[in-house]
Design brief:
single chain; 289 residues; alpha/beta; 2 domains; seven-stranded mixed β-sheet; binds glutamine
Length: 289
Amino acid sequence: MDISTLIKLATKRINSLKTANPNIEADLLMSAVLAKPRSWLIAHNDYQLTKVEEKKFNNLVKKRLLNQPIAYLIGEQEFMGLKFKVNKNTLIPRPETELLVETALQNYAKNTLYLDVGTGSGAIIISLANKLKDKAKYLAFDISQKALVVAKKNSQLNQVDKLISFRSSDLLTLIIKQNTLLRGVEQLVICANLPYVPTAYLKKLTKPDNKSLAFEPALALAGGADGLDLYRRLAKEIKTVKNKNKLLKIVCLAEIQPNQANKIKNILGAKTLILKDYCHKDRLAVAEF
Ligand code: GLN
């Protein structure tokens, strides 16, 4: 069959998921199978797929109908206008996290070190390095070696690998052990999209729930009883860093769920600002230390 017929059929099937753009999803799957941009599909919509290509396409559609996230099926996700490879070891970057990046950019000052703690696919730190280039320094930590492999690959694909140091670290452990990482730094901007989903909520999810969360790594999502366990630890560790470096200005940007705004203020301090995302929901805590 040709591209146009297959896409029409797939769009109809994907439509049963009630997602926003079934036609775009069908296009994305086709473009992944043929390894061609979407514009190519339009110009060649009468191209006859080989049997192998057709089978590959239909398999992806089937997986999509089982609610597998489109980003995992095509192996990538766009974020801040850049492309990021993703796989089951990394969270899929969300549009609301662009608020964290925009706020981090606004906090730029001379001699800033950006530290992305729990970097996952590297989306945050790579977007920052892509914008600010060598005007700042960049460090990215993750406890997952598998995530670090993906993040490093993404930094190469986006040509910022020379600017960012990717290191294995459980939250701020490495920077606490190796204070020399802060040499010459006047401002440390900690970017944290740590796991913040209440663990019990994740346990209840089933794959047919049409929730991409059910397919994503629990390590990147599960935040304990109220979702804030890791932010509690992070706050303690920030205080340790501050005590060792009294003149260092530390800004912490922490992504949250809208219903965590009051609690995060208790954790990061009463002066914490809460910013709303583009859907007008409380999404980002900004705290200074
Ligand atoms: N934003 C994710 C969600 O869909 C959660 C990400 C995280 O735990 N950091 O809820």
